[in-house]
Amino acid sequence: MQTGPGDNEIINRVLRGEQALYAELVKRYQNFVFTIALRYTPNREDAEEIAQDVFVKVYRSLADFRGESKFSTWLYTIVTTTCITFLRRKKLTVHSLDNEHIFEAADNQNSTFKANQVEQKSKVQVINDAIKLLSVDDARIITLFYQAEQSLEEIGRIIGVDPNTAKVKLHRARQRLKEKMEKYFTEELKDLVG
């Protein structure tokens, strides 16, 4: 949990001239921003570049934050927009995980999964690996709820649905995440539980 002044207080103080405090916001949200960027591009260097771009954009538009929602909700919107712009600029091909060919390729790499199972993974790493197998929409809602700690109301605002629909989408995304974990990470789950 965060200690010290709240996000809104920091923003107000930065806007009043205490620019050095902006580093506290960066520190609080750097993992959040980097994690979201990694959902859009598997390349760590690209994700780091996106994260840097995001924090520059946020600093420049801090005065536009109205405080009607959590800072993290506003930040999430900037991160996703920056990621999409970055991918368009780089002209990277983005494949939907709903495509059957992607799963066929993953099944054919089963030996790679077995080799990786030898490596001891933390619970967080296993979950993050499973999230990478989800569709973009499912990964986004799981990330918003569990990693960004957004409420169903805030998630609804971000994705443009009412809170009840967000709840249903979250439930379905959890089910698909569970299925992916059971299918691809059986050994890791045994190690984590056992």
Task: Outline the fold blueprint.
Elements: H1 7-15, H2 22-40, H3 44-60, H4 71-90, H5 100-108, H6 110-118, H7 123-132, H8 136-147, H9 152-159, H10 163-184, H11 186-193
Helix pairs in contact: 2-3, 2-4, 2-8, 3-4, 7-10, 8-10, 9-10
Family: Belongs to the sigma-70 factor family. ECF subfamily.
Pfam family, one: Sigma70_r4_2
Organism: Niastella caeni
How is this structure best described in words?
One of its GO terms (biological process) is DNA-templated transcription initiation. This is RNA polymerase sigma factor. It is a single chain. The protein is mainly α. The chain has two domains: 7-90, Rna Polymerase Sigma Factor, Chain: A (Orthogonal Bundle); 100-193, Winged helix-like DNA-binding domain superfamily/Winged helix DNA-binding domain (Arc Repressor Mutant, subunit A, Orthogonal Bundle), CATH 1.10.10.10. Helix content is 74%, strand content 0%. It is built from eleven helices and no strands. The protein has helices spanning 7-15, 22-40, 44-60, 71-90, 100-108, 110-118, 123-132, 136-147, 152-159, 163-184, 186-193. Helix 2 packs across helix 4, helix 3 packs across helix 4 (71-90) and helix 8 (136-147) crosses helix 10 (163-184). The radius of gyration is 18 Å and the shape is globular. The protein starts with 6 loop residues before the first helix and ends with a helix.
